[in-house]
Amino acid sequence: MASVADSVRLGLGTLEQLPEGIERPAYARSDLTPGIVHIGLGNFHRAHQAWYLHRLMQRGAALDWAIIGAGVRAYDAAMRERLLAQDCLTTLIELDPGGTSAEVIGPMVDYLPIEEGNGTLIRQMADPAIRIVSLTVTEGGYYLDPTSGAFDEGHEDVRYDAAHPDAPRTVFGAIVAALKARREAGVGPFTGLSCDNLQGNGDILRDCVVGLSRLSDPDLAAWIAAEGAFPNSMVDCIVPATTPEVLAQAAALGVADQAPVTHENFRQWVIEDRFCAGRPAFEEVGAIVTDDVPIYEAMKLRILNGGHQLLANVGEVLGVPTIADCMADAGIAGFFRKVQEREIVPYVRPVPESSPEDYLALVTRRFANPAIRDTTRRVAFDGSARHPGFLFPSLRDAMARGGSVRGLALAQAFWARMCAGVREDGSAIEPNDPVWAALHGAALAARADPAAWIGQGDLYGDLARHDGFAATFAEWLTLIWRDGSRAALEAYLAEA
C-alpha cells in the first residue's frame, strides 16, 4: 500500500509511474478512434461496458470503437470535469473477500460538454464514425406511462422536444435529431443500445425514439423503424457509489484518481445480436451474444434486482447501512431467502447456463460479500421505477397461479414505511426518489389507511383491486407501524 502523499495523479503522462501490480492500457490513446457515444456515463458503465471494450483493446482489437462520453443533465457536468482532468482514464478496483486488485482502463477518449439544446451531442452522434449510441440513464429515465408501460407522449419534456426537435431537452430528442441529420446526409443510422435494467430495454428504447420522432416527423420515424436497430441486453455487476473512502482506497493503492470505481468480481452481459452498423466482438471477452435475451434478463431482474429491493427498504427503515450488512442480519436475510424461494424463484425460467435455484445461490453469495460497501440508500433509490420493474412481475405471476404473496406484500409494506421518511431510530430518511413528494404523502396517509399507499394508481394499477394482496398489505403495514419492522420480520419467518 502506498501513502496518500505518494500516490500518482492519474493521466496519460503518468501511466508508467503507477505502482507495479496495477494493470494499465497496453494501447496508446493515439491508437484509438471513436465509434461509440455513451450517454449517462456513471460508475456502472465504466465498470461494465467500458471494461469489456478495454479487454478487447488490450488484445489489439476494437481500436476503432473508442467511447465518447455524454450527458444531458446538469449533474453530469461534475463527472465530465473530473474525467477530463485525468484524460478520461478510470481506475477500477475489484473488491473480493480474498483480496483487492486494481486496473486502469482507457477506452474513453472524450466527454462532450453538457449544454442546453444538446447541439454538440447531436453533431457528434450525426458523425458517420459513430456506429453505436449506448445509454445508462436509469430505469426511470425512459418516459414510460406508469400504468401501461408505453412511451408517455404527454410528458412535458416529450412535448417540448416534439415542438423543438432541433434543440431538444431529452436524450431521446437528441438521438432523434442526430438520426434526422444522418438521414439528410445520406448516412445510415447508428445502433441504439440500452444498458439499463429494464426488461426488453432495446424494445423500450426503440419505442421512445420512434414514438418521439413520430410526433414531429412521421417520415423520419418510419425510416428509423425500418433501418435502425435497438438490441435488447441484460447487464449485471454490482458497482457501489464512489465515496471519500473509495478515493482514499485508490490513493492507498498508489493512484490519485478523482473518479475511481469499485466493483465486485462478477460481470455478465447478454446482448441480442441485432446491430445495424457493426459492433465490437464482445463475445470474445466473455459477453453472451444470443437471440434469447428475455430469459436471461427475467432471471436477473427478478432474482437480483428484485432481491435488492427486498433488502434495501427494510434495511433503510432499520438503519442497516449496506446490502452486505443486511445479509449478515439473520432476520433480513431470512426474509430475503424465504420470499425468493417461495414467491420469486418458482416463476423464473432457467437459462442454458444456470437454474433459478443456482442463480439465487450465486446472488446470495454476491450480496453477502463484505468487501462491497453497497449502501441500502443507493439500492433503494427510485423505488417508483424499481418496484414495478423488479417485484411486480413476480407478484402478478404469484397471483395468477394462486401462489402466496405474503412476502411480496410485506416488501411493499416496508417500502411504504421507508417512504414515511423516518427510520425506527428516529433519524431522517432523506428524499430518495424522483417522485418522493407523492410517495411521502401517500406513506403518511397509509399509516391510518393502508389503502392510501396501494391506491396510487400510477404505481399499482389493478394490483390494488386484488383482495388477497390488499388485505395482506394492510395487515403487514398495520403491524409494522404498531410493533415495528422486526416484529413483522419475525411474524413472516414464523409462518409455515
Strand content: 5-15%
What is the second-level CATH architecture of the largest domain?
Answer: 3-Layer(aba) Sandwich
For the largest beta sheet, what order do the strands appear in spatially?
6-3-2-7-8
Radius of gyration: 23 Å
Shape: globular
Please tell me the overall pLDDT. Answer: 95
| CATH superfamily placement of the largest domain | NAD(P)-binding Rossmann-like Domain
CATH topology of the largest domain: Rossmann fold
Q: Can you tell me the number of structural domains?
A: 2
Structural class: alpha/beta
Beginning-to-end CA distance, first to last residue: 51 Å
Counted beta strands: 13
Report the top-level CATH class of the largest domain.
Answer: Alpha Beta
Give helix % range: 40-55%
Number of helices: 21
